User: Which sequence fits this backbone?
């Protein structure tokens, strides 16, 4: 099937905080642009029950913050398409070609803000029990565990936040941490330690889960003594990092060994006119605030690139 070709100034791939922020700036610059999102607008922010470290909001639900960002972008003129999946990109020519199910966008510039997805738990039975006791989004699936026992695996802010959130439903939450420390904020750790429903298992590593149709037990191994034991559990939520969504860019864009896009401080990739922003790019800190900053810079750089390359 022949697809219509749409000439456009800028395509933004991804509708998380980085992509939506880029859309806000691109719209204010009156660029002919579109945001394409294959998944859910708002990205991982929408899966956060509460956010307490975004300036301007003492406390805000992730879904509400995502809605506000989307509304602001659209009111400024951003065009957003959530229902036309991206199938391929071609970035080796003067124009950046983005092929969706319905169209081919011929863009002067491209911002990649596709984000990252949760890294799967590296245990033998992950596939068997995915969605049947193994989860990666407490906001999405936590209500399934009313009055039950769950585990949270991880050591950063996400693990701490979601352990707290799960106490709204579960009667007990095991926080499984392979080291004797957490990388998350001290204020969050303080809340966890004061919560009577949460038991922290330091120096314990989740090595497998077992059950018949659903998870019934977690097998953990002490990282110091190497002793294994099982605990009765109904579900496990993994927060052990993320994996960037960069599969379709590898043959054009320079990536790290872990698949993150390499950029300079102005979000430039190795291809002129192609930028990366947010969790998809290689950087030290991945926060909503840093994603928003990336989106701002990428859009301003894209605007400058488009103007400088317009034919007289």
Assistant:
């Amino acid at each position: 099937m022949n697809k219509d070709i749409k000439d456009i100034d800028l395509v933004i791939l991804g509708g998380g905080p980085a992509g939506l922020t880029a859309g806000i700036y691109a719209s204010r610059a009156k660029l002919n642009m579109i945001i394409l999102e294959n998944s859910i607008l708002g990205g991982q922010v929408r899966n956060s029950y509460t956010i307490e470290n975004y300036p301007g909001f003492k406390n805000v639900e992730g879904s509400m913050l995502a809605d506000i960002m989307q509304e602001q972008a659209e009111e400024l003129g951003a065009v957003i398409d959530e229902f036309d999946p991206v199938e391929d990109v071609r970035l080796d020519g003067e124009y950046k070609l983005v092929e969706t199910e319905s169209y081919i966008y011929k863009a002067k510039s491209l911002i990649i803000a596709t984000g990252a997805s949760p890294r799967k738990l590296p245990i033998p039975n992950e596939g068997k029990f995915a969605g049947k006791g193994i989860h990666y989004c407490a906001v999405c699936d936590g209500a399934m565990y009313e009055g039950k026992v769950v585990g949270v695996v991880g050591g950063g802010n996400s693990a701490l936040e979601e352990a707290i959130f799960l106490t709204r439903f579960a009667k007990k939450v095991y926080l499984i941490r392979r080291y004797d420390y957490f990388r998350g904020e001290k204020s969050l750790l303080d809340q966890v330690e004061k919560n009577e429903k949460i038991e922290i298992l330091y120096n314990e590593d989740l090595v497998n889960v077992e059950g018949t149709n659903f998870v019934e037990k977690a097998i953990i191994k002490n990282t110091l003594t190497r002793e294994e034991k099982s605990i009765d559990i109904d579900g496990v939520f993994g927060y052990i990092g993320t994996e960037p969504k960069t599969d379709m860019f590898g043959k054009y864009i320079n990536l790290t060994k872990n698949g993150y896009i390499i950029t300079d401080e102005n979000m430039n990739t190795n291809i002129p006119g192609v930028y990366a922003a947010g969790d998809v790019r290689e950087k030290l800190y991945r926060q909503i605030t840093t994603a928003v900053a990336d989106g701002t810079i990428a859009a301003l750089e894209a605007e400058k690139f488009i103007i400088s390359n317009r034919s007289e």
